[in-house]
Amino acid sequence: MRLNTITTLALLCCSTATAFAQDTDIKWYAGLRGSLAFEGSINAKANLTPPVSTKANFDVGGGVSAFWGIDLPGGFDVELETMYRYLPLSDGTVNGTSTKIGGYGQMFAPMVNAYWTAPVDFPVKPYIGAGAGYAWNEVGINSIGASSFQTLHDDNWRFAYNAMVGIVIPESETARYTIGYRWLHEDIGINCGSGVTCSGNLNSHSIDISFMLDL
Predict the structure, then answer these.
(1) 28-46 and 76-94 strand pairing
(2) What gap in Å lies between CA 62 and CA 84, rounded to an integer?
(3) pLDDT in tens, 51-99
(4) Adjacent-strand bridge partners of 68
(5) What is the CATH classification number for the domain harbouring 28?
(6) Bigger pLDDT: 202 or 36?
(7) Which of 141, 150, 47, 138 is nearest to 92 (CA)?
(8) Residue 161 to residues 6, 111, 115, 134: CA-CA distances in angstroms?
């Protein structure tokens, strides 16, 4: 249901933007974005008796994105982003007990984002943004504490959304940079075996640097 909703919204957004651009000669742009991701974590709960709560923390990781967008009136932009992110696992807690965890988490997400840039009378301008998408995530674990084992994988597709804030720095009349902060949330599926219901979510923060060029 969520996949159908996101797909419908993306198609509606793109078709509306395209029609509007054709009528008003508004500019398209494209760009690349690099991310330094930090303070990521997975929170999971298992419906057992008693319940089991687990938190896995990520070390510093990174990511890259390609995006295509359109400038709209009033300082608004709408873009389609394809994002990849990788984060190594560092440690975690199970019902309050801490332990080292080895492994990784990675995700790929097509996102539809909207931005508003403040019309200040200054070359460097602040912006805010938000977006949603449908993301693939994979978690691989190969050690817990002092015990190492063959990597255990779990992957799935789930709903994701993010919020951004930053600044736009002009490079020329047709090119610009952005530097910003992004908070990213994704629902994730946890495979806990037959007869056990589990749920989880992944949250991470990042500093993003983008370069975009008018087409």
Answers:
(1) unpaired
(2) 9
(3) 777 888 999 999 999 999 999 999 999 999 999 999 999 998 877 788 8
(4) 30, 80
(5) 2.40.160.20
(6) 36
(7) 141
(8) 11, 8, 14, 8
